[in-house]
Description:
Blueprint lengths: L1 E4 L5 E4 L6 H30 L6 H14 L6 H32 L8 H23 L8 H24 L4 H6 L1
Antiparallel strand pairs: 1-2
Amino acid sequence: xxxxxxxxxxxxxxxxxxxxxxxxxxxxxxxxxxxxxxxxxxxxxxxxxxxxxxxxxxxxxxxxxxxxxxxxxxxxxxxxxxxxxxxxxxxxxxxxxxxxxxxxxxxxxxxxxxxxxxxxxxxxxxxxxxxxxxxxxxxxxxxxxxxxxxxxxxxxxxxxxxxxxxxxxxxxxxxxxxxxxx
Length: 182
């Protein structure tokens, strides 16, 4: 309720509408948080789905086999196994690189530019905890195997993304010599 004085000096009580500035700021803040944190948590959910029995090597191998048949490609068993393994391990690298980038973006929040150690370390910590718990979960999932080497591969993807972020942020800054030339 908002109180105000009428021209004849009586107090008027009016209900506050939902579009008042206070709720608008709260909604704006929530939307902004959702904008930064939503993709990161969404990707965590995707990783949890990838950790189920449906994403086991047997199932992804049959999908790859159907794709190869559709494309009329014939591979030897050895080549197929090598290709399948390469795709699966590349997925580990890429999935955790993306997770690292999304959590860096989330921790950075509305700061559009810049880089801080804390943002990087927090993103890497999330990746390490997620990767480790994912591999432990896979030890107890039928058709899946958990491996410490997968954690190393996941973290190499996460570190790679952080290096790319550092290169992007600091690559945009001009050196003192470049400033003198212009």
